[in-house]
Sequence to fold (120 residues):
Amino acid sequence: MKLKNVLIVVKDIEKAKKFYHDLFGLDVVLDQEGNVILTEGLVLQDEAIWKKYLGKEVVPKNNSCELYFEEKEIEDFAEKLEKQYPEIYYVNRLITHSWGQKVIRFYDLDGNLIEVGTPV
Fold:
């Protein structure tokens, strides 16, 4: 068995595609009726589809999981994030952990938690 994708729920597929492309360089692999597969295996699904099949409400900022990315030039990334998405909600701005890793945590446009850290 092999894990193929990670799916997150979004309200606006077009805005989410732009966000993940602008910040992380992810490109569309397949765009099909409210489901979009991006490079690196991230899948965006329209909230209406999720609600229909799950029969439950989506809970943004539920802090039950996070997407983790690594970036060597994290200061540049933090600057790009601030410049392109000044309205973003931060959990923590750029910090350095006791073990030396620099990280930044924030929510995407739909309340999905993201962490970007320097390679360990």
In short: The first strand starts at residue 6 and ends at 10. The chain has a mean pLDDT of 96. The radius of gyration is 15 Å.
